[in-house]
Each structure stands twice: as structure tokens, then as C-alpha cells.
Amino acid sequence: MQDSATRSLLGHARPQAKALIAGAALSALGGVAGLAQPLVAKSFVETLAVDEPVSRQVLLLALLIVGGALTSAFGMYAVERAAESVVLGARRQLISRLPRLRVADLDQRPPGDLISRVTADTTLLREAATNNLVDTLIGSVTLLGMLVLMAWLDVVLFLAVLGVVLAIGACTALLMPRIARASKEAQEALGELGSGLERLLGAIRTVKASGAEQRESTALERSAHGAWQAGLRAARWGAVAGTSSGLVVQLAFLTVLGLGGARVANGSMSVASLIGFLLYLFYLVGPVAQLASGISGLQVGTAAVRRIHEVLELSPEEAEEPAGSGGTAGRRAAAAAEAEPSSAAADQGAGIVFRDVVFRYREDSRPVLDGAGFEISPGGLTAVVGPSGTGKSTLFALLERFYDIDGGSITVDGRDLRDWNPTELRRNIGYVEQDAPVLAGTLRDNLTLAASGASPDELRRVLEQVRLTALVDSLPQGLDTEVGHRGAALSGGQRQRIAIARALLRRPRLLLLDEATSQLDALNESELREVVAEIARTTTVLVIAHRLSTVTGARRILVLEDGRVRAAGTHAELLREGGLYARLAATQTLGPTQPEPATD
Ligand SMILES: Nc1ncnc2c1ncn2[C@@H]1O[C@H](COP(=O)(O)OP(=O)(O)OP(=O)(O)O)[C@@H](O)[C@H]1O
């Protein structure tokens, strides 16, 4: 697991490899300039001792200092630039994947947590995939270089230093998995905080109206505290790792001073060599600290990369095959379309067949649909009614292929739904969800969401159809008016009409309306019913309605109960039959005097 996370981390760094190598090389060059300074200093002392001029050494030292600083600065910029690009790359990957994930997978993940993966986790990647990686690399190379030079200066002292480095290195290695675990917990707690915030802000009016502000902020406080605690755990282990890097140098200093002093005293080592050795030890502080912070930073990065890859590894919905590419599904679909060309060819709307459909949201839950079957021929208005929670909206979700069924079959225009590419299928459908979501942005953004190429005339016509012209004309900025978060600046009825207009602009062959007019006043509703009846002449329209009065004119009404279609027919037929529909109608005081089907 740790290995695969490290591999993924390297995968994020790979596209920036050239920039990183250039940056690291420049930084290393700056490091080499520092590395050469003790040698020049040694030669400076030796030259002074024999009373010769030292101007060459002074010039060299000045060059090493200025040149080293400049190359380090360029190196740092190159690495920082690569760091920003790594974050951008990871965010792009997540952003392009998220909207394509399956609805079933998205159902299980709170949006706030997903947001935190795109924002906070990718930010952690920034340091890990670049600076920490470079620090680890440079720290190791410099440390190795210094150890080689120390071995060259004095083998005995080198072995003593090596012993100290290895002992403390082994202790640090034990700490690293703890840092990774604590970091992942901190990021998870941050994700929880994001979800909590999303829950609070998404329903702020309900929270205020329920007087639950304190309760909600206490819950958020708990998540924030959890993130703090996990962050502290990571910091604690990080501090231990960081201190051990200082400890290694201090211990090595003491060892070299004691051992080196004795060796100088008995004449087996020169003072100049001891000074050089001690200077190397002095310079050891940098690379050892760099290595420690690099490695512990990498642990934080691997924790973040795991959370990012948990999303990237979810399989997306199948992408649309380019025209003529002839993949398996495409070929099957083409064959099916050929087998039944009439329904697709006639511009009457889509034909739908459900055969013994079984569907459950989760493997361990009971089926929502259990043997549901019905046929809808192209065109006309069909209504779906039934008690709350019987699976009416689920029928629509299945038609949109948000979920795949567990048994039976669904065909649209004679093609099995599994042979339809989701994008291609949805292009044929206009769907108005139960709570008519409106997105933040302008009215125009919302209307053209599903039909970016809609002409101004078409927009105008649809706005008239849904009786929105007066509203748009009354707004100073017309269609370019901002509607606020989730359309908060609009009334419930306006939101519904915008959602219907959006679906109509898609010019669908199948229109799905889920309680789409429930918030309209009686006049607007009856006007819209006429519009829908008109559309049903050329389009298959399916409506879900609780108020039966809104669907009495439907060509056919399907009565859904306990996951099955219990009855089907016109309003009058169903009333005559008795049963659930007649009981529902009785509770809504509907008699047989309702208008007969207006559409066909
Ligand atoms: N995303 C989901 N995950 C798990 N269960 C779900 C999900 N959506 C709906 N359900 C469950 O499936 C059942 C059918 O829900 P559905 O929304 O289809 O009913 P409905 O007939 O449209 O209800 P209503 O008339 O109240 O809108 C319900 O028991 C509901 O709890």
C-alpha cells in the first residue's frame, strides 16, 4: 500500500520531471558550491600557515558564495513552478473524473469530502511531489557526498560518524508510517468538516428555522477538533523525526571532537584535517535536516495521494464512442437499431419497454423494483402514480441510466439500455427532477445548460411556453441575471419553470417530468399542462404526479405499488376497475367527470 502510494506520488511528479531535474540540478549546483567552501577554507588556512598570498582563495570563496546563491535561487523557482503544475495536473484529473463518475458511486460520498480531496489534498501533493521529493534526493546525494569526503579525510572518524547516522536513521524509519497514518486521519477529518459545512450551508434556512445553529456548529467543531488532533499527532511524530536530525549532528560532533582530538594529540591526524572534518560536520546539519523533512513530507504526500486515488480509481461511466469507431456496444446497438428501425425513425418520440425489472440501490437492501413491467409506445402522455416511496423516481433514474438494473430488461427504441451509451441516451431525454435544481449562475447559464447552441429565438419561444417571459422582461439584466446559490433568488415555481424550459430546449424525444409542476399556481399549472399535452404529440412524455387531478387527461396511467405496475389504463378505466387508483382518487375527491385524454 505504501509502495503503491509512493508510485502514485511519483506518477504525479513524472510530467514535471524535466523541470524538477533542472531545478534540483541547479539547487545541487548551489549545494556543491557550498560543499567546496570548506576545501577552499582549508587551503586558505594552509596557505596562511606558509605565509603565501591568499588572494586566489578569497576570490574563489567569493565566487562560490555569489554563484551558489544565484543558482540556488533559479533552482528554487524551477521547483516551485513544477510544484504548482503538479497540483494543477492532479486537480485537472479529479475535475475531469468527478462529473463522469457513476451516480451509484457518488451517492456514497459526501460532496464536502470530495471537494476537500480536490482542494486540500491536492495542495498537500504540491510539497510532496516536488519540494519533499527534491529535498529527499538532494539531501541523500549531499549526505552521501559528504560521507565520501569525510572517508577520504579520515576513515576512523568517518566510521564513527556513519555509525551515529545509521543508528538515528533506523529510529526515524520507524516513525515514518506513523506520520503517514496521522496525516491521512487529519485529511479525513478535514473531509468530514467539508461534508459538515456542505450539509449546514446547503440547508441553512432549515437549520435556522429549526433553531439548530448551535447543534450544527458543535458538530462542525467536533470535526475541526478531530482534524486538529490528527494534525497534532502528525506534528508530534514529525517533530521527533526533525529533532533526531539535529541529534545526529550533535552526537557526531561530540564523537569527532573526542576521537579527533585524541588522534591529533597522538599525531595520527593533522589539525587542518580535523578542521576540515569539523566543517563538514557543520555542513552536515543542512542535508540531514533536508532529508528528514523531505522524508516526513513525503509521508504526508502519500496520505494525500491515497485519498486522491480513491476517487481516480473509481471507474467512470463509459465514454461516448466517436462516430464510426464500432466498439462492441456500438456494434450491438447498431444491430439492434437495424432490427427495429421504425420506432427510432419516426419522429414520434421514444418507445419504452420495461420487462420484469428488478433493481435495488444496494446489494444488501430489498429491491425497490421487483418485477416491474410496462410498455409505452412512442409519443403521448403517460403518467406514473402510486404511494410515496414505491419507486416512481427510481424508474426515471433507470431510464437516464444513472443506475444499472439487477434483473429483467429495459429497452428504449428497441435497444437494450445497456447497449446505449449513457451520453447518447441522455441526449434524447429531457429530465426535470423532483426538486427542480437550479445551478448558481445566470438564468441563461441555467437554460442553456443542456443545449448550449440554442438560438435566441428558440430561447424566447421556450420561455413563452413556460410562461417565464414576464419574469425575464422585468429583470434589469434579463437573462443575464444571477439566480444565486441553487437559484435562491427565485421562487419555487420559477425554479420549476426554468427546469422545464431547460429540458424543452434539449428538444428531447423522451420528456421525464417528476412532480415538475407541483409548486405552480392553478392557472400556471393548467397552462403548462396544455404545453405538455402539445409536446406529447411529437414526444414521449412521462410524468410522475401525486395530485391525480394533474394527470387525468393522460393517454395512459401506470399505477406503481410495491415495486410493480399493479394497473394501467386511462383515468376512467382505472376508476372503473377500483383498486388502489380508485382509492387514491377518492381521497383526492376526484370523480369520473374529469376530462378524457387530450393527447395521443
Ligand atoms: N439514492 C438512493 N439510495 C438508496 N435508496 C434510495 C435512493 N433513492 C431512493 N431510494 C429508496 O428507494 C425507494 C423508492 O424511492 P423513489 O424516490 O423512487 O420513490 P417515489 O415513488 O418516487 O417516492 P415519492 O413519491 O415520495 O417521490 C425509497 O424507499 C427510497 O428510500
Automatic annotation (TrEMBL):
Q: Per the database record, which ranges form the ABC transmembrane type-1 domain? A: 21-299
Which locations, inside or outside the cell, does it occupy?
Cell membrane
What is its membrane topology?
Multi-pass membrane protein
Q: Where are the transmembrane segments?
A: 58-79, 133-152, 158-176, 237-259, 265-285
Which GO-annotated molecular functions does the record name? ATP binding
Tell me if Transmembrane helix is a UniProt keyword of this record: yes
Concerning Gene3D superfamilies, the annotation shows:
ABC transporter type 1, transmembrane domain, P-loop containing nucleotide triphosphate hydrolases
Question: Which segments carry the region annotation Disordered?
Answer: 315-342
Q: Does the keyword Nuclease apply?
A: no
Q: Which Pfam families match?
A: ABC_membrane (PF00664), ABC_tran (PF00005)
Principal location: membrane
The protein's matches in SMART domains, at most eight in alphabetical order, are given as: AAA
Q: Where is the composition biased (Low complexity)?
A: 330-342
| Record-annotated ABC transporter domain positions | 352-587
UniProt KW keywords? ATP-binding, Membrane, Nucleotide-binding, Transmembrane, Transmembrane helix
What PANTHER family would the database entry show? Answer: ATP-BINDING CASSETTE SUB-FAMILY B MEMBER 10, MITOCHONDRIAL, ATP-DEPENDENT PERMEASE MDL1, MITOCHONDRIAL
Q: What is this protein called?
A: ABC transporter ATP-binding protein
The opening ranks of the lineage are:
Bacteria, Bacillati, Actinomycetota, Actinomycetes, Kitasatosporales
